[in-house]
Amino acid sequence: MSLSESDRKLVVAELGRDPTPAEETLFENLWSEHCAYRSSRPLLSAFDSESDDVVIGPGDDAAVVALDENTYITMGIESHNHPSYVDPYDGAATGVGGIVRDTLSMGAYPIALADSLYFGGFDREHSRYLLDGVVEGIADYGNSIGVPTVTGSTQFHPDYEGNPLVNVACVGLLSADRLVTANAQKPGNKLVLVGNATGRDGLGGASFASEDLSEDAETEDRPAVQVGDPYTEKLLIEANEELVDGTLVESARDLGAAGLGGASSELVAKGGLGATIELDRVHQREPNMNALEILLAESQERMCYEVRPENVDAVADIADKYDLGCSVIGDVTDGNYVCTFEGETVVDVAAEFIGDGAPMNDLPANEPTQPVRDLPDFDFGEAFEAVVGSPNCASKRWVYRQYDHEVQARTATLPGDDSAVMAIRRAGLGLAFSSGANPHWTTTAPYDGARAVALENAANLAAKGATPLAAVDCLNGGNPEKPDVYGGFKGIVDGLADMCSELDVPVVGGNVSLYNDSPNGPIPPTPTLAMTGTTADYDAPSAQLSGEGTLLLVGEPSGALGGSEYLAQFGGSDRFPELPQNASDVVSALSAVATQDDTLAVHDVSDGGLAVTVAEMVSDDAGASVSVSGSAESLFSELPGRAVIETATPDTVIDAFDGVAPVTELGTADDSGVLEIDIGGETRRWSANEIAELRDVIGRELE
Predict the structure, then answer these.
(1) Is it the case that residue 221 has pLDDT exceeding 80?
(2) Eight-class DSSP state of 479
(3) Which of 277, 311, 305 is nearest to 291 (CA)?
(4) How far is Cα 520 from Cα 564, in angstroms, rounded to an integer?
(5) CA 679, 685, 690 angle in degrees (round to 5)?
């Protein structure tokens, strides 16, 4: 990828001369779609990012949200899609490393990760190869640095075959007095590079992420993939703690896209300042590196700090303590962003022009249409076993068992539930965390499917008794220059924005990944949402039955089948189900009921519909007898905002949802370890062992 002719003309007009090779490559990367959001930024104003709890919203390395006046969390999310196709292990691992460093740069300690993964059909050998490598990369990196991966999602869809998605979110924890930003503070301060030595890996990573993948990407684009070193990252985490504790850092930015050039220019631009950097001073691990390589390599585990001159030696001492490289590479100034190499000026540009000078794209968008209703023939037993045993609805235990989800001793609700819950003891509350999207929903109806993604994540939190607090999004799409693709992308942006506003959940930050196209075509529009919520108690209701209560379905008993796993398995089409008009009231009522003493179990209705929900709730010790009326919609519609509640006092639940949502009695729980379902007079039974066997398809295939 090279700087377009139109962009080059803008640069020449601004500089009054031709750019140097280093400048041209810097603009190529920092004006790429990956960094400048040229096709998406015009749409992002749809999001409401403000609330009384938001301390720092979009634009910094991570967002900051207050739990109380002294306790903050950070939230961030990142995509590493193209690198994970080319090199699944290192691509996924360095995605974890990058989002963790975004957390460090705000002065926070990383406490939880979420992985949202999307692959082609599970029946394809290449999809299983990518899944295996990606999960191993996330596990090895996260486990090595001691940050638990506590939640997430794994989805399969044929349109990801040529371009998988790896989206990783991170939550950090800090006290209010530790907050650091990426805004340079004062001319005369020093710029200090701490961490790994700079090599040639990851060159052009930002521009690579802004192109469609070619047939030869797995071999030709490998040099653009960074190589991670989690053990150095762990040292960097601990060193960063000491630097922040010692108030030795004025501002910070991690080295990600576009390497040193991206981090240092953005740091000073955000402060309305400039810099003078001597590239020769950068500690390097490879010989004979030139200015362009030093400036733009995306070598991992590096941080750029603004440091007062009198604190430079103390910073160097801490770096030395943790065996980290440390280079004083330049000064913050009130002039241009200037880089020299071997006595020659190779970059001399206004930092603000590099960061914000890229023109935005005005692209045509075709309005998506929903499919007509054309349903397949229905066989109850066949449909149940196909949907419950499908890779999308199957147990993801094979994935999350590879992660250390209990390190740091905060995880109160483990992976495999609706959402994770972590104990934030300093604030005396629980923090719930959910992340994911459903590509079948947003393929069927980008706008309503994205609204459903937001509602589903909020319901995941509410099922554990939490009130939604804030969200970050990772907006993944194909080539935006195609009107159909851009129309779908616009739909998911507007859908997420509208539902989050309805739920009163500020979207405080995020990431955009476009040009996820390959010779197989574009990916589905995929709006990964990572959402946090708070609860007064660490102990959340289980998603598994106790075997002692009445089962109630909260929400409409049925809906359309559009976007469902049922149609994915058997063919046919339908509109996406109509979402509740009072979604915020539904989530609030669900959260309140989940915390009641008589509530024995709560599980929201999501992928696979009611059939999968009740199947997941049974165990060897607890079964259920369930009766539903109607047709396939009653069991397999994936209308979100619903939940199955096991309760000792049904009237209490009915009263809580009076005027909010209908409540239908499904049956009773017992100690049989058997799920019995009656639909339209036909009754079928499955033992917990038979259901577990159906749901173990991923583990069976990959062990």
Answers:
(1) no
(2) -
(3) 277
(4) 23
(5) 135
